[in-house]
Amino acid sequence: MRFDVLTLFPNLVLPYFEDSILSRAIKDKKIEIHVHNIRDYSKDKHKKVDDTPYGGGAGMVMSCEPLFIAIRDVKTQNKGPVIFLTPQGETFKQEKVESLAAQKELILLCGRYEGIDQRVRDTLVDMEISIGDYVLTGGEIPALTIIDAVSRLIPGVLGKEESAEEDSFSASLDRMKEYPQYTKPEEFEGMRVPEVLLSGNHAAIREWRMKNRK
Q: Is CATH 3.30.497.10 correct for 2-151?
């Protein structure tokens, strides 16, 4: 699966993929990550990408031209939907993760400042997503959240395909939450692992886990 991220701050995005599961997924060609600096598409000699809002008001608004050029350029390589990360968007839930995982390509647009020119939203954006009812300084963290959540549903990314299906909020488990997890040692500071988990009785273990989901 291919992800293209449009941002003013590529160095906020790229380090996330240098380690752990997603790094391996890139090496194994399960996912592709392409990060584009929106400033590279500015025709202004100072690479300016924002300006004051018409009608007045605080802050700056990201301008039409560099965004139109950037998105159109990326869409020559990525035919997936353009997702704008904004607090006004649809709240990101597992159902949306699953629908996005069915795509082959996604374009993630990270806003900054007071937002982007409405003409970009009206013309080039296919959907708007929020990761929660709060305001961040930019769309980079939401973009990484989407990539992480979607990638782990791609076969082979976790290394053990059934792991994603067993996770909290999986459709196959009726959105139920996770059960308590333990690992070695069996006892630590007087706290013991429940005996049923040491029993080797898989039916009993499954029953215990189902009863102890929170």
A: no
